[in-house]
Amino acid sequence: MHTYEEALEWILSRLTFGMKPGLERMRWMMERLGSPEKDLRVIHVGGTNGKGSTVTFIRSILNEAGYKVGTFTSPSIETFNERISINGIPISDKEMLELVRIIKPVTEELETTDLGSLTEFEVITTMAIYYFARMNPMDYCIFEVGLGGRLDSTNILEPILTIITNIGLDHINILGDTIEKIAFEKAGIIKRGIPLITGVEQSKALAVITNKANAVGADAIIIHKDFYMTDRNPVETGERFTFNKGNLFLKNLVITMLGAHQVKNAALATMATLQLNIKEEHIRNGLRKAFWPGRLEVVQNNPLIVLDGAHNPEGVEVLVKTINERYKDKKKKVLFAALRDKELTKMFQELRKLDGEFYFTQFHSPRVETAQKLAELSLMENTTAFEDWKPILIDLIESLAENEMLIICGSLYFLTEIKPFLKKFL
């Protein structure tokens, strides 16, 4: 293994092993590597939506307080390396190569056992744990759950704090087709005696989560019960709100990420960092400076172009609400592409609340839905479908008037393809 390209190719080659839930392979790897997971101070973040934004808010606050923070997130939006980052900066190609040189032989040893091969996600989780514990030790690490929680490869970690952002219908073919079943999987990251902070609001899902917390003696800190966000005021560059816990009021907190859902994510991050005894000034500054790509991201102001990675009904609902609230006067044009294993019918029910012109397309993925099929499923009139997104995107941008806006959405994987192109084109 001599180059970064070879290292990346080896990691991505693991995608052929698909998804294999279960922690046995990870436990075996950790034991062989000398139990690096035991040397980390981890904040473990699960939930359906808002994980990446919540991770970013917490990381930014801890950075303001002077701490060195490692983050593990997925999927990547701009570069693969950003999945393992230090203080928001992706690890270098050289470090990625070095990591693969260490992890690959151990992975090959595992393949000779009955446990079989590591998946791509298990490999990158292992690399992140090893890097933060052995190669570049951190004050704190924030790990985002990949899928579900109970059987996710990140669940071998022993956190100091657990967060479950919310519960929605996503990955129902794997996690279950009801809110309660999905909540059961997400609640699998709750650990004995470790505080849990949650933004879950549906009563049935919350009951599953609080029951699990009670069963393992984890103190559950619940939004709208133990802490609140009030006085939300959308301002031109973001949101302003008040955080309230007991007799503590943090007034006029400001974030630059858009939408009521981001206020909630910021409140979760505020609660988490208060648990770690972070000062108010660091919370204020950290919230204000936090940025996470692909979440109602304005890539151009005039004419207005917005990117959003919402890929399930709940995510699309908050996207539509925020767009309709903020940009009432703009005529909307929407370029949409998505994976076929998503709740597309329910996503379209929400999207139809955007009064606009819809253009359907597709991107490179074995799981992608065709543009034509999306147009049919949408039940919308006057839609157009294009297999290749580049020509239509160029047309849309070049013809966009001042009173119009372009929204590019449907999948984070779609944005991964779009963003490098936009950087060159805009």
Can you lay out the helices and strands and say which pair or pack?
Layout lengths: L3 H10 L10 H9 L9 E5 L4 H14 L4 E4 L11 E3 L2 E2 L2 H18 L9 H16 L4 E5 L16 E4 L7 H4 L3 H8 L9 E3 L4 H13 L4 E3 L5 E8 L2 E8 L2 E8 L4 H16 L4 H10 L7 E4 L3 E5 L4 H14 L4 E6 L7 H8 L4 E5 L10 H8 L5 E2 L3 H11 L4 E6 L2 H14 L1
Helix pairs in contact: 1-4, 3-9, 3-10, 4-5, 7-8, 11-12
Describe this structure in words.
Helix 3 crosses helix 9 (260-275), helix 4 crosses helix 5 and helix 11 (313-326) runs parallel beside helix 12 (344-351). The chain has helices at 4-13, 24-32, 51-64, 93-110, 120-135, 172-175, 179-186, 203-215, 260-275, 280-289, 313-326, 344-351, 371-378, 389-399, 412-425, and strands spanning 42-46, 69-72, 84-86, 89-90, 140-144, 161-164, 196-198, 220-222, 228-235, 238-245, 248-255, 297-300, 304-308, 331-336, 356-360, 384-385, 404-409. The strands form three sheets. The protein has an eight-stranded mixed β-sheet, with helices on both faces. It has a six-stranded mixed β-sheet with strand order 12-13-17-14-15-16. Strands 9-10-11 form a three-stranded antiparallel β-sheet, covered by helices on one side. Helices cover 41% and strands 19% of the residues. The model has no long low-confidence stretch (mean pLDDT 95). The protein is α/β, with parallel strands linked by helices and 426 residues long. The protein folds into two domains: 4-289, 3-Layer(aba) Sandwich (UDP-N-acetylmuramoyl-L-alanine:D-glutamate ligase); 297-425, Protein-Tyrosine Phosphatase, Chain A. The chain is globular. The protein has 15 helices and 17 strands.
